[in-house]
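I'll show a sample.
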Amino acid sequence: MTDPTVATMREVAGLSLYQRNAFRLAGVSVHADRRDVRHRRQKVVTMLEVGADAGLEGDPQEVAAAFDLILGDPRRRLVHELFWLWHDPDATCCPDTLHHDHDRAVRAHRKALDTERTSRFPSPNERRHLDLLWQKAGKQWDQLIRRAVFWNHVRRRIEALDDRQLDDSVIDTLRAELPVTLVRPLLQLATQEGGRQADLIRQAREWPRTGDLVATQLERTAEPIYQEVRRRINTLSDGLTDPRAIARELGGEVVPRLDRMAVLIPDSRSTVRLRNDVATLFNNCAVRLIDSAGAHADPDARGWLDTARAMASEPDTLERIAQNRAALDMMVALPYAFPGRRPVVPSRRTAPDHWSKRHPPGVAREQRGVFRRLFAWLVISGLLIWVLNRCAEAGVFG
C-alpha cells in the first residue's frame, strides 16, 4: 500500500499545485489548530447555506473537501502546508525570515506556472522573461530545502499536530519527494504541444535535484507517440497506392509527431530509426509517382526526395534517395529520352543484397539507355550538319 504522504505528494504534483491547495480553498492559516479549522468551517458552511459570499474562490464541494482534508489524515495536511504561505504574525515556531523565504519561493513558483499557462504565443522577450521566472523559482526552492531550519520547521509542525501517524520518518519521505513534486508542473507543460515545448523541456532538465526523473518522464510521454507513428508508417507502407495522399498525411500528421518526439527525446535511437523509415516512405512515394507520371512528377517528387534526404540517417537510404534524385534530374532535362521509367528501389521491409545496394538494376539500365540515345542523337546531328555544309559548298541552295 502506498504511503499516504507519498500518495498526497503525487496527487498534488501538477498544474493545480497551488490553485487546489486545501489551505487556499478553505481560507485558513497553515498554523491553525483543529479547533480553529472547525470554527472556520462552521462559519463558511453557514454563509454558503444562506447564499452569502464567503470570500472563497472554490465551489462549495471543493471547499468542503478542503476542510475535510485539513481535519483528516495529518500526513496529507502536512503536505498541503508545504505548498501554501507560512507567514503568520502569531506564529512563533521558527525565525520569521524562514517564513518569508518560503513564501517568496511559493509565490515565485506560482507566478511562473500561472504566467506560462496564460502565455499562448509569447514574443522572444516574453520567452526570456518566462525562462527567468522558472529559473528564479527553481533557485529559491533549492536554496530553501538546503537549509536545516526549513526541515526544523517541518519537525516542529509534526510536534504541533501531535498525531501518532506522524513521526520524523515523514521528513525523509518529504525530502525525497519534494523536488519531484516541484518539477512535475513544469514537466506537464513541457510535454504539451506548443511553441514553448523545447524551452520548457530545457528548464525541466535544469531544475535542481531531479536526477534522472525528467529523462524518464519524457521517455514515458514519448512512448505513445512512438507507437502511433510506428502504426501509421506500417499502414501507409502497406497501401502505397496514392503517393500524393500518403505524402500529405506524412507531412501533415506523421512528421509533426516525429518532431515532437525529437524534442522530448532528441538522442533516442528509436526517434532516429523512425525518421529514417519515414524518409524511406517519402522516397517510395516519389518513385511511385515517377513510375506513373514520368517527368511530370516534378516538382512533387523532387520535394519528397528532398524531405527524405533531410530525414534519412542510414547510408543505404541516402544512396537510394540520391540515385532517384539523379534519375529525376535526367528525366526532366531530357524528357524525350525517357519514354517510361521503372526504377527498382528496395522497399523498407526488404533489405537489398550487396550488389543491388551499389548497382540498382533499373537505374543502371536506364542510365545506359540514356547515354546510347544521347550518343545516337549527337551522331545524327553531326552527319546532318556535314551534309548541309557539303550542299552549301556545291551551290545546291543557289
In short: The chain has a mean pLDDT of 85. The two ends are 111 Å apart (CA to CA).
